Structure formats: structure tokens, C-alpha cells
Amino acid sequence: MDAISKIINDIDKFVWDWWMIILLLGTHVFLTIRTGFIQRKTISKGIKLSVAKDPDAEGEVSQFGALSTALASTIGTGNIIGVGTAVAMGGPGAVLWCWLTGVFGIATKYGESLIAVKYRVKTEDGRMQGGAMYALERGLNMKWLGVVFAVFAGFASFGIGCATQVNAIATVCRENLNIPEWIIGIVVAGLTAVVIFGGIKSIARVCERLVPFMAVFYVIGCIIILGINYDFIIPAIATIFRLAFTPGAAAGGLVGGGIKLAIQYGVARGLFSNESGMGSAPIAAAAAQTRNPVRQALVSSTGTFWDTVVVCLMTGLVLVTTIMKNPAINANEIDNGGVLTSMAFAQIPYLGPVILVVGIISFAYSTILGWAYYGERSVEYFAGRKGLIPYRILYIIVAAVAPVLALDLVWTIADILNALMAIPNLVAVLLLSPIIAGETKKYINNLDVKDDTPIPVVKTGLGEK
């Protein structure tokens, strides 16, 4: 087992070496420039559009339903445990790199969502299918690479979307509620089965109600902690910036590992959190009722804003201010992000652990639902509809056994699969950047204009024509 762990860790180090960091951040910056700093429009127009309805447009779910499904998969344990792991392993400076990944990643989320809608197809029974695999096939005539993406996404759903999330739920319930882990696995598997067998509309309905509640609930908890630690907020921000670029120490056992570790863990956890560049969220965007690709792309890009620019930043500040305020916490001896986060929320008398437990359970369960949909669409692309039932059954089985899996190994495998998903997706985004720029120019000031380009009808995903 030790040999296998070493191999997996070596692969993780390779895929998250400098070349991946440069590819990911480089794409974020490139698309920011190529789209004329689309982040401005995300704030001014995207947020407003996200709650607008467009029932006359083609699609399966509302724009908010598609965004909620995407947010359900992105606002997960990555925002809580993932940021904690980044701080523990990469130092406080990782918070800055995680945040910057979100700021510039808004452009990539916009671009990948735009091409997902532009190149989407419709099945004979009226379901919308889209994502990097369809953009690669229809936009670049690279179906083989689309299949590669779909295979990686299908496998990734079991890790990032299921195993890590159920494991987190089981751990927090065992430590705070004394509920045996195997019971949690069975309960989560059962609840997941009920929803995912209802398809995207069922998943979207649950996510539309769950996502706003869980986000507001968690943010309120963070605000309370920052109020308790108010005198350390400015020192924490200064420490985050300083240790993002240089090794060094700060109060409370905080030590920066230098720019490489800060960037590596910050970018990796940032991607795990907001999924910008992975190509996952655009799969949900393709199902939205929208008049044109730019309209839904703006809505989708708000997901990265809420997820990383807001929620992950607040989590990072909560953790760093807590460690600085409590010198007895030796962050160097903690390699579990969940432990750091638990210590932070323990500062809130009585309600702190409750907020954390409810936050992790709701965040993780919503992620399980969102990624089940991503996995289904990916499997349908390379295996056809005949692959859906086996996939759902296997997904539920993984949910049931996840509580007894080694969490650190599962997280590492999830990191690897995230990177492998990102590569073909970033190829699509970069090679189709002229299309992204052209569509942006065409619609950005005419968001109500309807794109009348016919949507191709296929038998059941391009895997079975």
C-alpha cells in the first residue's frame, strides 16, 4: 500500500508541477485579455442575469437552475477542507494564489461555458447535451480528445464529486455527532439515489433550494469569526501577501514554504474549489434556457466569483486570523485542513460546531448531486445511454463505501484527475478563443438578441449517432 501511495503522490507532483500551473494561470490571464476583462461584466451583468428567467429559450432548466447545479458541485468541501489543506501544506500565502486563481479564472469559466452552449446538441427525447467533449468534436473536429475528456471526467466524478464529499460528511458526523461512518455512507447513498435517478430537473430543483441556504449559512459563520478575530484581519492580509512570495514565519506557528509550495497548493485547491478550467460546470451550463451563448456564459462565470473570490477568501481569512490569534495552534504539525477549520469554528460558543457540521454536510451533499450529473453526461458521450444505469449504480456504491476510504489518498487521486480533465478542456478553450472573442463582441451589448443557429439533434449523445 505504501508503494502504491508513493506512486500516486509522485504522479500528483508531476501533474501539478510548474507546467500545469503555467498552463492554467496562463489560460486565465490570456482569456481575461482576449475577452476585454470580462470580469467587469460578470459583476455588472452576470449576477443580475443569474436570477432572470428566459422560458422561451431552448433548454431544460432555468439559468439559475443551471448555475445552482454548477455551484452545488463547486461550493463544496474544497471551500472548507480544501482551503484548510492549502494553508496547512502551502502556508498562508496559498490563500492569495487560490484567490487569484478565482479572479482570473472567471474569464476561463466564461469562455468554457460559452463554447459549451454554442456547440451543444439535443437528443431525440429533448435533453440538452454539452461540454468540452462536444466543443472539441464539433468546434475542432477532435472527437478523440473529446472522448479523453469524457473518460477523465467520468472517473473524476467518483473522486472529487463523490468519495471525498461522503468521506467529509462521515468524518464530521462521527467527530461531532458520534454517528458511525458506515451508517452515514448508507444514508448518503440512499438520498443520492433518490435524486439522481430523477435527472437534471430533479437535481436542479434540489440545488436551487439548497445552494442559497448553505452559502448564506456558512458565510454568516465566517463573518462572526472574523468579528471575533477583527484585530488580526489586517495583520493576516499582510502575512498572506508576504508569504505568497517568500519563505518566512509569522505568529501562531504560521510558516510559508516559499512561492513554489504557495502557488502549487493555492492553484490546485483553487481549481478544486471553483473548477475554472476543468470543464465540469459548462456541462450544466449547456442545459440552460438561454437566448445566446454569451448570456449563459456570464451567468456561469458568477459561480467562480461567489465560490472563490468570496467564499474561499473568507475561509482563508478565518483560518489565518484564527492561527495568528491562538499561538498554541501549530499549523506546521497539522496536515488535515478539516482540523484547522474545526479549530476556527470552535471559537463560536455552542453554535460554531453546528455551523461547521451543517455547512460541510450541505456543501458536500450538493457537490455529490452536481457531479453525478457531470459524470452521467460524460459517460453518455462515450458509452451511450446504456452506460447510465451502471454508472448510477457504481456512483451510489462508491458513496456507500467512501467513509472507510483513506481520505488523503482519495484527495490526491482527485487532484490528479482534476488536472487530467483540465488539459483537453484548456486545449478547447485556447484553440476556440477566436470564437469566444467573436461571440462576446457580437452579443455582449445585445444580450437579449436570440441566436437562431439550429441545435443539432442526435440519437443519445454523440456516442451513439
CA-based shape: globular
The count of β-strands is 5
Q: What percent strand?
A: under 5%
Q: Please state the structural category.
A: mainly alpha
- Distance between the first and last residues' Cα: 43 Å
CATH level-3 fold name:
Amino acid/polyamine transporter I
The domain tally reads 1
Judging by the overall fold, what is the CATH architecture? Up-down Bundle
Q: Supply the number of helical segments.
A: 19
Transmembrane segments: 18-37, 144-170, 182-203, 210-228, 240-263, 305-324, 350-373, 393-413, 419-437
Pfam family, one: Na_Ala_symp
Main location: membrane
Organism: Schaedlerella arabinosiphila
Explain what the structure shows:
- The chain has 19 helices and five strands.
- The chain is mainly alpha-helical and 465 residues long.
- It has a single domain (15-442), classed as Up-down Bundle (Amino acid/polyamine transporter I).
- It has a three-stranded mixed β-sheet, with no helix packed on it. A two-stranded antiparallel sheet has the order 3-4.
- Strand 3 and strand 4 form a beta hairpin.
- Helix 10 (199-228) packs parallel to helix 14.
- The longest helix has 35 residues, at 143-177.
- It is globular and about 65 Å long.
